Amino acid sequence: MPDVEAQREAMKELARLVGKWSGSARIVRPTGEIELIQTEEASYRLDGLLLTIEGIGRSAMDDSPVLWALGIICYDDEARVYRMRAFNDGRWLETEVTVADDGRELRWGFAVQNIQTNSVLRIDHSGDWTESHEIRIGAQPAKKFMELKVSPRP
Fold first, then answer.
1. What is the predicted pLDDT for the residue at 136?
2. Nearest to 147 by CA among 114, 115, 122, 111
3. Most buried of 21, 29, 69, 102, CB within 10 angstroms?
4. DSSP annotation string for 64-95
C-alpha cells in the first residue's frame, strides 16, 4: 500500500513553486529565436499528492500562444523518487525529477530515439524562477533551446 503521508511530506519540498508567475522566455527554433511573454502556474492537487505546473509562452510580437505545457509531479514513496509526466504539442513523456537544495532546484530530462534533453529549474535567492533547457540530437553537442525567467505575481 502506498504511504500517502510520506508522499505528502516529500511533496512539501516543492512548495516554493506554488503560485502564479510571469516574466519572459526565449526559445530557439530552426527558423530562429522567439521571444515570449511567459506565465507559470503551480498548484497542489489531491490534497498535496500532486503538483501541477502549467506554462504558457505567448509571442511577444502578437500575443499568440507558442508554447503550452503541463507537468504533473508526484512522489513515488516505494522507489523514493519524484516522477513527472509532461504534456505539450499533443505529446507526453514521463521522467524522474531530482530535487535538490531544499526544493530550490529541479533537474529532469527526456530521451526519445536519438534525442536527449536536460532541464534545470531553479528558484534563486531573490525568489525568481529560472529554467534552462538543452537538447542533444545524436552525436551533436548539446544546444540551448529554451530559457525563461519568471517572478511571483501578486
1. 95
2. 122
3. 21
4. -EEEEEEEEEEEETTTTEEEEEEEETTEEEEE
β-bridge partners, 10? none
Euclidean distance between CA atoms 95 and 119, whole angstroms: 11
The CA radius of gyration of the chain, in Å to the nearest whole number, is: 16
Is this structure's pTM higher than 0.85? yes
Asked if 34 contacts 64 with a C-beta cutoff of 8 angstroms, the reply is no
Where do we find the cell 510520506? 6
Q: How far apart are CA 11 and CA 106, in angstroms?
A: 13
In angstroms, rounded to a whole number, what is the distance separating the alpha carbons of residues 95 and 63? Answer: 31
Give the CA count within 13 Å in the CB-facing half-sphere of 82.
Answer: 24
How far is residue 130's CA from residue 21's CA, in Å, rounded to a whole number? 11
Percent of the chain residues topping a pLDDT of 90: 90
Q: Quick one: CA torsion of 110, 111, 117, 122, rounded to 10 degrees?
A: 20
